[in-house]
Each structure stands twice: as structure tokens, then as C-alpha cells.
Amino acid sequence: MILITGALGFVGRNLVLRLLETGREFVATDTWPEREARESFGGSFPYQSLDITNAEAVETAFSQTSPQYVIHLAAHPLPASIKEPVSNAQVNIIGSLNLLEASRRHEVKRVIFASASSIVGKVERNPVSEDQPCLPQTPYGVAKYAVEHYLRVFNQLYGLDYLVFRFFNVYGPHQRPESGALVPLVMSRIIRGEEVFVFGDGSVARDFVFVDDVVDFLIKALEVTTPTHRVLNLGTGRLTTIAQVIEMIGKVVGCRPKVVQKTPRPGEITNFSADTSRLREVFGQVPSTDLLSGLQKTFHWLKEEIG
User: Fold this and answer.
1) Which of 117, 140, 286, 290 could form a disulfide with 78 if both were Cys (CB 3.0 to 4.6 A apart)?
2) Do 143 and 88 form a contact (C-beta atoms < 8 A)?
3) 18 and 44 in a common domain
4) By its UniProt entry, which InterPro entries does this protein fall under (predicted)?
5) Domain assignment of residue 74, given as a range
């Protein structure tokens, strides 16, 4: 049995859909009421409404489902963390601790945690390895880094097995424009013939990884037998500038983007891509979907969503 938190979020939805296809036993959890959650998936699926900041509710969920694995995707997002650092800590730190406590009490085999590449802060060397010193620049980054350390300590003290993936810039179907993420936001605005706003001059580069590849590794992490209790970058190792991504999206949509430059956002970090050597060492492979193919699949989904 796999317990998934944040199952109605972007990555969570893709994971749930894949697990439904494969027939693996799981329970999806999120804060949505059950009726709304099932309606959003167009039918019944194994789901429980769960607020991870409620320790008693987390304990009840574990007692009812007896999970062997936990895939922890639930999070208070980065942009909101700048305005609401306390709320961010309540969800991303206290909520995560509630899950870790329940996991050790119920002898969960492995916790798989979605961390973030942004915890690095100032980039010293590129590509960025997992061993590069971290100096988070946002409350979100601080919280994610704290949970990485809590996992290490829970492993040392209680033997709780874990695997951390530091997500780089994940994109793909079910990432909605209102999330503020670059790809769906730019794509939706180009589809509607609206201006595209760029923070800075567009020369900042990122490592964009397709969500299907991320789901592949989340599932592989359930079965990997090489030593775990590790932190792994989950990116492609390839850099693409924001300007290049916008240009590619314009080609996929078939419209020339109207770009307007804006002031850079606080907490943004400079060009960085994933050092994927450790990921390849553990799994024997790295994400393989090229950016153009991923953008085309994303466009097909988004076009249906926004009509």
C-alpha cells in the first residue's frame, strides 16, 4: 500500500493517474473534500481527505490504510511562502514531521520526499551536485531543507528509510496556469493572444524536466534496492533559457509571443542545472523526454482544458 500526500496537486495527479493504470494499491490524500476530489478525477478512486498539519488525522489515516510506502508531495508553495512564512512552516515542516512520526510508528518501509532544487540558493558550480552547500533564499526553501535533515535524523535515530528527490523545473499536463509556473502560464497567454511577462531579460536558464519522467522515478523509488537514505537531483542536466522556452512554446502553439519584461522576483537564483550522475548511479538512467516533445504533450492537454 502506498500513501500519497498532495495527490491532487500537479505531480500528484500525474502519479495517481499512472498508478490507476498499473493497478498498484494506493490511497491518495489531499485537503479536498472527498466528493470534490472524485469529481475532479471524473470518477471513483482510492482517496481520503487529509490535512497533514493535524497529527491526529494523520495517525488515523495511517491506522486505516497501513501504508508500506509514503510519497510525500504535499506542500505550501514557494511564492506564497514569501507572504506567509508561518503558514508555510506549518504545512511544510510540522505537516512533514507528523508524517514522519506516523511513518516510524507504523513501520513504513520507505518515505519518498519531494524536495526542491531551489534550496541550493547561491550556485557555486554548475551543474549543481547534491553535495553543493545549500543556502535557501525563501521560507519554502528553508522548510524543504529542514525536512531533508529531519529525514536524515529519523533514519539515524529510528531506522526510517527514505529517498529525497530535489525536483528541478517540472512541467507538463495538470500544471495549471493559475499556479504561476512558467510553462502553463506562458502557454495559456499565447493561446489567448495575451502579453507574456518575463521576470528579467529572459537570459536566466533552468533545467526543465517533464512530469512523466518525474512520475517514472517516483515509482522506481518504491522498488530500488541500492542504498537509499539519499538525496538525488531530479532534472535532465540540460540548461534552457527562459527566452528560449518562450520561443519554443510559441512555435508549439503556432503564435508569436508578445514579450514584456518585468523586474526580477525575490528569491530567484541564477542559471543552474542538475548534476544527474548520482541519479544515474542509483537508477541506471536519467529523465529522457526532450523539451520540445514535453511542451507538445503539455499543449495538447492545456488546449483541451482552456478550450
Assistant:
1) 140
2) yes
3) yes
4) Epimerase_deHydtase, NAD(P)-bd_dom_sf
5) 2-170+211-236+277-283
Pair 111, 197 in one domain: no
* Number of helices (H), then strands (E), in the chain: 12, 13
Partners of 116 in beta bridges: 167
pTM: 0.94
In sequence order, which residues have a C-beta less than 8 Å from that of residue 253 and are 6 or more positions away?
Answer: 187, 190, 191, 299
Cβ-based neighbour number of residue 118 at 10 Å: 23
As a whole number of angstroms, the distance between CA 49 and CA 28 comes to 8
> Looking at beta carbons, which pairs linking 33-37 to residues 24 or more positions away fall under 8 Å?
37/8
Query: pLDDT tens digit string along 36-68?
Result: 998 888 888 999 999 999 999 999 999 999 999
Closest CA to 235 of 113, 71, 120, 117: 117
Query: Which amino acid is present at 122?
Result: K
Residue with cell 528579467: 200
149 with 199, same domain: the answer is no
Backbone dihedral region for residue 200 (phi beyond 0: left; psi -120 to 50: alpha; all else: beta): left
How far apart CA 69 and CA 168 sit, in angstroms, is 23
Give per-residue pLDDT as tens, 195-232: 888 888 888 899 999 999 999 999 999 988 876 789 99
Residue reference for cell 529517498 = 163
